[in-house]
Request: fold
Amino acid sequence: MSNAAPTRLRHPFRSIRALPGRFTLGRLFDRLLFRLGAPETGPIKLTQRRIYVLPTGSGLVFAGALLVMLIASINYTLSLGYALVFVLAGTGVASILHAYRNLLDLSIQPGRCEPVFAGETAAFRFVVDNGRTARRPALRMKLGGATTSFALDAAQTRVIEVSTPTDRRGRLCAGRTVLETDWPLGLIRAWSVFIPDLSCTVHPTPEKDAPPLPDNGSGDGDGAAAERPGDDDFAGLRAHQRADSPRHVAWKVLARGGPLLTKQFAGQQGRERVLDWATLPAHLDVEKRLSRLSAWLLEAERSGRPYSLTLPETVVPAGRGRDHCIRCLDELAHFGDRPEARAQ
Reply:
C-alpha cells in the first residue's frame, strides 16, 4: 500500500501544489499599480491600502446628469434645482464611503481546489471572514471569466467557490483574483486585487473506450487480459473500499444486517498489474499515452488488485487504494513538468 497522505476529495483522487508563473505585461502592470507579487498564503487582510474605488458606468452617467442639472439651475437661477443637485451629489459621495467600508477589513484565506480531469471544471475555494458586526451585502469574487456573488452576515465566515474550466493537464494556478462590490447604489465600484497561493492538479483525461487492462506486465493493451486459474477461488472477506467493484460486494452479508464487506479471491491476492509506459504502442504520442494510462489506473483501482506504474523517470511501486491512485495520477499530471496554466 502507498504511504501517500490521505486527502478528502469529491473527484476520486486529488492533490495541490503551486509553481511561479511566467512573466507577462499584465503581471508587470499589476505589480506596479496594485503592488502584486508572489502568491499570498493568507490570511489576506483587505486594509485601506488594498482597496480601490472608481465610479461605475452608471456612476459616470449619474455625474453627467448632475452636471447638466447644475448648469440648468445656474442658468435659470433655480434654488430648488441647486438643492436637488447638492442632495443627489451628497448621496453619491456617501455611496463611496459605503462601498469602501463594505470591503474594509475582510479576511480571505485560500482554501483548496479538488483535482479534476482535463476538460472538467475546477472549483477554487476561498474562506472569507467578516470580523465586523455589520452585514456585507452584494460582494462578488472574480477569477478569470467566472464570477460568484455572495453576502456575509455579521461576524460570518463563508466558503466561496469560484469555478473555472480546464483544458489541459498539469497545474492550474488561481492567479489574479478580484473581490469587488458596487453596494449600495451601483454608482461606485470598490475592489481589491490579490494572488492567492492556490492551485489545482489537473489529471490527464482518461481515454474513452480504452483497451482492456494489461495483465501481469503485458502493456500492449490490444486484447483482453487473460485470466489465470484461481481467480474464482473465494479467499475471504475484507472491509469495503470505495474503489471496489460492486460485483465483489458481499450483498448477502449486508442483507442480513452485517457490515459492508468485499469478497476476496485467491487469484486477486498474489497477482499485480504492471502499467508500463514503455510497453504502450509506439504510435501513441505523449498525451495519448498519458490518457490511456489514466484510464487504466482508474480501471485497475476498481478491480481491487494491486498495480504499479512505470514512467520513463518514475516508478511507483505496487499498491492499491485511493491514496495510491492519487499518487499515480499526480505523476501523470506532472509528467514532463509542463508549465502551469492560469485561470485568467
